[in-house]
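Annual report, structural modelling task.

Input specification for the iron/sulfur cluster complex:
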Amino acid sequence: MNNRYSAIQTAYTCYYKYKLQYIDKLEVPEDSGDMAYGTGVHLAMQAHFEGDDPLVAFNIYWDSLKDKPLRYTRDNWESLKTKGDVFITRWLRLHSKYYRPLYVEQRIATTIQGFGIEGTPDFVGYYKDVLSIVDFKTSAQKYDKRKIISNEQMMIYAKMVKDVYDLDVKQLVYSVFVKQPEPSIQVITLELTQAKLNDMISNVGLMLKDLSTRTEFPKNRTGCQYCSFFEKCYQTNGESNE
Ligand code: SF4
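The model returned the following structure:
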């Protein structure tokens, strides 16, 4: 069975959550408006690279969520719709010219130390003429560069791209759609070296080995208040929302 990086991330947040979600395969109710917004932006970018209108793609998706009971943090459905238009228009005007795609949203897989792993990079291609993997993000605030330096998922993608397409990725790129205080687009780049890649990939191998042999799944209780399994673990019968 191939793991996805999100499963590894979940395990090291809470082993019990990993068990519920990936071993017991319980359905995770998705009610985060912020997560849905990220999906909307990804759909817009994908539409652009496939020759369609990204504003139309975003608005069809976002309008379909108007009456859904989603949880929002700082924004709401209306403000995010307005910001979506601003983001996409600005990205088309100022940023799109730097991208030359080779593969967009293609699911690929490889092995790390004998363990299968799969993933779907947002964009593999040229950013400012450098062979890159690009991750499109939405965030309430600007990112710290340490976020991309420590991003194992993109390193895994770089290994997959080498193994599947025989391409040597030279750069990782975050394109961050920052929602607060006003919409802005932040780009962070990281030169990728073989030493960085080897270091990260060997650590991912250790985690995959740990998960494949693990028989106990303690509750790490990291971020319980945001967890979809809160009621299952604490059985407050809704009192926690009062
Ligand atoms: S509610 Fe807390 S303990 Fe329970 S699965 Fe989620 S993170 Fe783990």
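DSSP finds nine helices and eight strands in the chain.
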